[in-house]
Amino acid sequence: MIELSHVSVVYRKGEENEKCALKNATLRVAEGDFVIIVGPNGAGKSTLMKVLLCELAPTIGTYTLNGRAMRGFSVTQVARWVGRVFQDPNSGIFPDLSILENLSIASKKGIRGLRFRSCPQKAVTLLSRLGLGLENTLNVRAGDLSGGQKQALAMVMAIISDPKVLLLDEHTASLDPKSSVKVMELTRQINEQFGITVVMITHNMPFAEQYGNRKWRIEEGEVFEYEYRPPLRRTHLETPVVLLRDQPHYEPKLV
Amino acid sequence: MLGIVEQGLILGLMSIGVFVSFRIVNMADLTVDGTFALGGALCVRLFSLGLNAPISLLLSLLAGASAGVLTGYLHRKLRINVLLAGILVMTMLYSINLRIMDGPNLPIPKSSVSSSLGTYEQVAGKDPLADLFESSAPVAKPQKETTRQRTYQNIFRGMADGQDLFLLSVIILIGVTLTGLFLRTELGTALRGFGTNPSGLESFGLPKTLMTLLGLGLANGFVSLAGGIFALYSGFADVTMGQGMIVTGLAVVMVGEILLVKKKIVYGLFAPILGGIVYQGILAVVMRYGYRIGFRASDMKLLTAIFIVAVIGFGLVSTNKRMKGKFRLSTIFGGGVSRD
Ligand SMILES: Nc1ncnc2c1ncn2[C@@H]1O[C@H](COP(=O)(O)OP(=O)(O)OP(=O)(O)O)[C@@H](O)[C@H]1O
Ligand SMILES: [Mg+2]
Questions:
Q1: Domain boundaries along the sequence of chain A
Q2: DSSP H or E segment with residue B130
Q3: How many A×B Cβ pairs under 8 Å?
Q4: Cβ–Cβ contacts within 10 Å for residue B189, how many?
Q5: A30-58+74-250 has which fold?
Q6: Cβ within 8 Å, pair B322-A96
Q7: Ligand 1 in contact with A204 (CB < 6 A)?
Q8: What is the pTM of this model?
Q9: Average of pLDDT values for B199-205?
């Protein structure tokens, strides 16, 4: 579904301090995959993410999503197929708006019209399934939520209009261990129950071991795949909804 | 007294524009000074060319909105810092306004062609803010006589007339209602979202450029409409009438927000209106009794600016989370720059 072929990214090309952040990466992600990306600071992980988001066009090489060459696409255009959640809990939501208004913005794609905003039932259902209790406080200002709740809301917002792939750049990094686990379980749910492909960057090694079926390590711009198993494919109906509230409390060791 | 409320309403209408750019879209748009005068100049020009007042106002509104759109375009497409883009357009408008009026000011013609320039010139040199607030200004009552050759009458009859108050209230009510309704639509909600997280909105498929143009267009439309109304109301337009409007507007918004504490009526659009009336009231008092402590009309801008500094610096509006000290300081002085 995602195909990168011989992609290199060079920052400040031609200048004396030019930086090759991604070197000749040829990568493939299939539908339903849960990709984990690890690597030291400055290795080029976020750069790869920017390419996938069309924030950055590869200096060399091609990026194909769903069989469509992505060269020339803008961030707003690619938003139709790609959802994203980043490290800063305020970056994925609209802090001054209520949860309901946030969901209503997220539940549409492309240019909006002059119809009164609405929030599809699906959004509220999704939110209530997560067991965060957010469905009862829809008029609360999103900026007043806790970091973990913000990230959960951001994830719901990112997947509500059925993107092909969800891109996560250290989305648990600013959360406490408990909230991180919740958010990771939510990520797993999104992948397994809704069949949304996930590409996730993390510095948390326990998470990198525990989750994902395809694992990449990036070092100085070079990408290696160090683990692969076929993705778990379950249908929506067979899977009982796991309520996060009922999850055993597991405290991962932070690396 | 009536005059104070009326002028307060006009000031409030203008400040809604400032509210839209600073609070909703979260961009420090300085075009305002130019668009206020543009609204006045164009409206008086069109009116004296024989268009009726509502159409003149509508066209001024559109012209102001285009000026806002231009600022947005310079900022987004040509990547000019939003403060500079606003100043550039404001400067362009200064020359354009002089062209429109064919001079530094333009009175609404009275009964004959040899109009009221004589009386007007006495005022022209004065601080425009002073005109706005002195109900006894000589230009205040040019509208009592009607022109014979002209088909249309000014919709405003002059100061201290209950009908003006009614008309102004209706215009404000319509403006606030329409904007309030707009902010409830999908596009309007997105615009509010844009104000709090512009890049975030991109990941939901809405380009920054579009939202910027929309927000600044709307904001400057309000300002320009207020400029037109002010010109019709006071009987003339002047190229300096917009000077310092951004500061006044900001002060008005803050006064309203302080008074309403945390409450947001119609997405906060009510704050500038209340603020406008109160600000105007304070001003009238200062004007009337201020001379006793050696205060001059021209000191008002200094006071207004100090007020804003105080509000931001000491976080006077800190009851409202959105506007806590430091955060707002950066939004106002670095707005739209750091948020790219
Ligand atoms: N806009 C830019 N201009 C120039 N160089 C850049 C730019 N963005 C990133 N780089 C450089 O590219 C390299 C890779 O950066 P990148 O952000 O992809 O790292 P990362 O793997 O995400 O690191 P971290 O774990 O700290 O998030 C770094 O050396 C960085 O300095
Ligand atoms: Mg990174």
A1: 30-58+74-250
A2: helix B128-133
A3: 93
A4: 24
A5: Rossmann fold (3.40.50)
A6: yes
A7: no
A8: 0.83
A9: 90
